[in-house]
Every structure is written in C-alpha cells, then in structure tokens.
Amino acid sequence: MRRSRRVASHGGVNHERWVISYADFVTLLFAFFVVMFATANADKGKARAVAEAVKAALDPKANPHSREIIKELLKKDKRITPETAKQTVAELTPSLNVLQKNLKDEIQRGEIELHLEPRGLTVSFKQAALFDSGNADIKESASTALAKVADAILKLPNQIRLEGHTDNVPIHNGKFRNNWELSSERSIAVLQFLTEKFEVPVRRLAVSGYADVAPVASNDTEEGRTRNRRVDVVILSTLASKWEPDKN
Predict the structure, then answer these.
(1) What is the CATH number of the domain that holds 99?
(2) With contact defined as beta carbons under 8 Å apart, do 125 and 109 qualify?
(3) 86, 216, 235, 246: least buried by Cβ within 10 Å?
(4) How far is CA 165 from CA 92, 148, 215, in A?
C-alpha cells in the first residue's frame, strides 16, 4: 500500500528546508500537467480517425455510448490504442452499468459521478457524501453507497486507486495543517473502511492525496469547488494496472 502523506521530522533540523522541496515538487507537478494537457490535445484528427476505425467492431446495442467512450479514451492517453480502448470498454462497462443502476439515487442527488476513463472506471464521491466539512471521518450515512462500490470491487480482480482531492480554499482547523493532509487522510479513511468493513484485500489498494492540484472544475465558483472536493475510487483496467508500480 502506498500512502501519499508527508512525514514531519522533529529535532535539531532546519524546518525551513521543506519549502524548497515543496516548491520543486509544485514546479515538477505543473510541468507534468502541462505535458499531459499537450499530449491529450495533440493530433485530434488522428484520434478521430482511430475512433472511426473501431466503430465497426462495436455493438451499439450492447452499449450505445461505447463509440463516444472510446473516442474520449483515445484522446486522453497516448498509451491507449484502438484495441486497448476496446478492451477497457468491454472489461469495465458491465461494472459501470451495475453501478449506474445500484447508485441511481446517489447519482440523482449529485453525490456520486461515474466516469469511464483511459485508466479505468472512476466512482467519484463528493465530499458531502462521505465527510463533514474539514473532517476525515466517514459519515455513517455513507455506508450504503460504499457497500455497493465494495461489492463491485470484490467481483473484479482489478487494482484500485483511492484518490483524495480538495478545492483551493486553505483549511483552517487544528486537525490538518493543509489540504495535502486532508486529502490524504480522506483517501486513507476510505481504504480503512473498505478493508475493515468489507474485507477488500489491502494489496489491491493504493491511496493518494492531491489537495487542489487536480481539479475537475473551476475553483472560481462554489459549484466548481463542490465538484473538486471529492474522493475518487478508481477501478483500474487490466492495462492500467500494469502501469502501476509493482507491489511485490
């Protein structure tokens, strides 16, 4: 299990040194997202052409949205080929359909979003569905939705990523020093819930905390900030699992 948490040091050391490391980290992270954005938007004509190439192989009756899904997969990740995009859709569409049905009420209330992405199926829990503001203790009311997700996870052999995210508003309470800690602790809380309540094997899980560096909406509006405060449960495709660091 990987935990994206900062470990504080104590003793006679220079506590200002972390500022340099943090600045380097933010710079590298910014560069990473610039590269990802550039590659995701490059050669759109090729992406469209490849998407057309797999149209004939798709069964619109089985999944009427599969063409659009594959087109998006090809745009977002250059490691995705027509064949692997087809495999991702075929592999995870059954789970997507089951979760859409089982989480219908939560989706209608705006508590959960489902996305089929290049790396797999993402179940995105809004903060309000799992936690009180500024807190990392899972609410009792979240048990039902988490149980449905755990059931889907246990029916698959796939690796799972648990990713905590916040908006860009600094946290001000005595529990967490910053949004990095809050987002990490929330993903860890979901991991503990899944392993302790539903016996999801811990070796299949990895946790990360991203604070506000991976928003899905603008932080300039309350609606956008609400969408950004989330924990994503990502059921990785078989291919994406191979991209993960070896846990052995």
Answers:
(1) 3.30.1330.60
(2) no
(3) 246
(4) 24, 22, 8
The predicted structure's pLDDT at residue 34: 43
Roughly what angle, to the nearest 10 degrees, separates helices 143-154 and 82-102?
140
**Which residues does 159 contact at the CB level (< 8 Å), separation at least 6?**
204, 205, 206, 236, 240, 241, 244
Report pLDDT digits (tens) over 108-159: 999 999 999 878 999 999 999 999 999 999 999 999 999 999 999 999 999 9
Residue 241: its pLDDT value, please?
80
Over 7-76, what HEC string results?
A: CCCCCCCCCCHHHHHHHHHHHHHHHHHHHHHHHHHCCHHHHHHHHHHHHCCCCCCCCCCHHHHHHHHHHH
Give residue 213's domain range: 17-243
The reply to whether 9 falls in a domain is no
Q: Determine, yes or no, domain membership for 248.
A: no
Residue 215 near residue 166 (C-beta atoms within 8 A):
no
Residue 92 burial by Cβ neighbours in a 10 Å radius (0-12, 13-18, 19+):
buried
β partners of residue 121:
116, 235
Q: Which is more confidently placed, 139 or 88?
A: 139
- Please write the tens of the pLDDT for every residue from 183-195: 999 999 999 999 9
Does a structural domain hold residue 34?
yes
Instruction: Give pLDDT tens digits for 33-45.
Output: 444 444 444 444 4
* 8 belongs to a structural domain: no
